[in-house]
Amino acid sequence: MTSIKVGVVDDHPLFREGVTRSLSEVSDFVVVGEGANTSDAAMIAADAHPDVLLLDVSMPGDGLSVIDEILSISPDTKILMLTASEEVDTLVEALQRGAKGYILKGVGSRGLADAIRTVFKGARYVSPAMSAKVMEYSLSGQASDRDALTPREREVMDLVAQGLSNKHIGLRLDLQEKTVKHHMTQILTKLGVTNRTEAALRWREKR
């Protein structure tokens, strides 16, 4: 059986300890790091490269703001937001920044384990209580192409629209080429296109 490496970052010690203890009792999970803030999250990503990183939204440094950094450090890490926030804007921003899942803190240990396995396999997971809100947001068309992307992804798309390659985009933005490729994968998905040429044409049309 393949062990899933999990990191847990939350600024409430009792909650974090409870989650860690619960996960440690599951045979296919190995907790490889714990932290209380965004600096800890980045350090866990760099040192342990967890398969799945549980990340609180409301913690010192702001959980949403560190998503880009974590994915730059460890592009293969799947981020699962574990939060008390039921704000749809927070959920949407988390997914737009690259989180693979969003689960509310009222979840039981079995539900949390299922969510971790889901994102580990490459699928997206959103708490059932929040799924309807995501659907409403999507159908309402609230997000334009530009709004759908993170600030870093917009920078990448601006350069893609100028015809730059991933290598040259990386040099311009001081990013590794594999990180640029990761951003491009996210961008294509969010814009609903299949290649960078289509993305560039659409980006130019919307400007």
UniProtKB/TrEMBL annotation:
**Record keywords:** DNA-binding, Phosphoprotein
In this chain the Response regulatory domain maps to 5-120
What InterPro entries does the entry give?
CheY-like_superfamily (IPR011006), NreC/VraR/RcsB-like_REC (IPR058245), Sig_transdc_resp-reg_C-effctor (IPR016032), Sig_transdc_resp-reg_receiver (IPR001789), Tscrpt_reg_LuxR_C (IPR000792), WalR-like (IPR039420)
What the entry lists under CDD domains is as follows: LuxR_C_like, REC_NarL-like
Q: Where is the HTH luxR-type domain?
A: 142-207
Q: According to the UniProt entry, which residues carry 4-aspartylphosphate?
A: 56
Question: Which molecular function terms from Gene Ontology are attached?
Answer: DNA binding
Protein known as: DNA-binding NarL/FixJ family response regulator
Give the organism, scientific name. Rhizobium viscosum (Arthrobacter viscosus)
What broad taxonomic lineage does this protein's source fall under? Bacteria, Pseudomonadati, Pseudomonadota, Alphaproteobacteria, Hyphomicrobiales
